[in-house]
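Following up on my earlier thread - several people asked me to post the actual chain instead of describing it. Fair enough. Here it is, all 119 residues.
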Amino acid sequence: MTERPDDRTMSAVRPYVITGGRADAGVEPLSWESLVVAAAAVPPATLQPEHRTILTHCQGLLSVAEVSAHLGQPPSVVQVLLADLIDWGLIVTRPPIPPAERADVTMLRKVLHGLESRL
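Reply from S.P.:
Thanks for posting it. Predicted structure:
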């Protein structure tokens, strides 16, 4: 299949069209690790397809980066779309889960020695 010159330029225009020309959400953007989930609210029939796709994928918790991958759009575009859905009460967010705290090495050594003494 040969690529036409028009095919290469479409992807550059599409994100601009999807966001209605907005480059940012107008609020503090969600971090890529932020988790989002669809709210129980019924979405209006007037939603654009990208908003509907987000709601379909967000039936369980997903990160902004995962939503971006599912949509095949840059995270900046997804952040704008998610901000719309949050404003409309259709998406609920929660901060990213913090990395696990490092376990106390002395406690791990005590457990290891306890297990070794039983063997």
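Residues 5-18 form the longest helix (14 residues). That should answer part of your original question.
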